[in-house]
Amino acid sequence: SVAEAAKELCKAGDFIKRTEEAIAEAAEKARPVVHHVKTPSKTVVLKDVILPKEFEEILRYASIGVPVMMVGPTGCGKTFIAKQVADALELPFGAISCSIGQSESELKGWLLPTGSNGTFNYVPSEFVQRYENGGVFLFDEIDCLDPNYAKMINMALSGTDGFHLPQRYNEPFVKRHKDFIPMAAANTFGTGTDLQYVGAEQLDESTVDRFRAGTVVMDYSAEVEEMLVDADILAWGRLTREKITSHRLRRNLSTRFLRDRTIFKAAYPEAWSKEGDYDMLTRSWKEDEKVKVKV
Hints:
Elements: H1 2-30, E1 34-38, E2 43-47, H2 55-63, E3 68-71, H3 78-88, E4 93-97, H4 105-108, E5 110-112, E6 121-123, H5 126-133, E7 135-140, H6 147-156, E8 162-164, E9 173-175, E10 180-186, H7 205-211, E11 215-217, H8 222-228, H9 231-246, H10 255-267, H11 274-282, H12 287-293
Parallel strand pairs: 3-10, 3-11, 4-7, 7-10
Antiparallel strand pairs: 1-2, 5-6, 8-9
């Protein structure tokens, strides 16, 4: 009948529209991403990299040497951003993951028997190299920092032009390079452990103050996730996050997790399922928590 034919045409039209929308969305995602960020000395152009809105603020602080601390939940891209800052400023990048009980040598360097007849020579750490020669250095997980480390960091970032390193006996003064840029990443503001980040330590106020003027609060970026994450996985993830928030659960669903599940789906589409995403996310959760976020 004419009515049935019209109905079929409408269905076909809807299908074509959905297909065109999907093609347009795919084309948008495939388009090269270009960022232009102005600094006092130049306009930085970054191509083919996906960055959150906080990046411009972070780069502004870093470009003028203000120590930067990024505070945000696990897996929101803090470490990645620090490396992008180094790339944007065309500087070398170094990092250390902070923890209680770390050897101070990881910051100060080592005296090792590398010379002839076992003579001890000073071997600089990545931190000392970046401090003297320029570059971005990230104190990752700084809210897990050992207090002994904090005192040395405080001295190095005190506003003077360097610090003394006794074990480098031939040249004990470590002069700060004009292009040395300290950055830090943390899950907390350095106020100590909480029910989510049980490994966090309270930071000395003098350490916090050195990063205060460059502290940037971060969260999971909707724009970044839309570029990185499969549409079905992202829709499930956002709904699950809403449930986590509404039930006030001390749990996270990170961009990193969504990206990794997207990679898995692309590699093994026949093995992927939303139930699998849910199971992987909640595998270590309590039963009552699992029920609350079940989509």
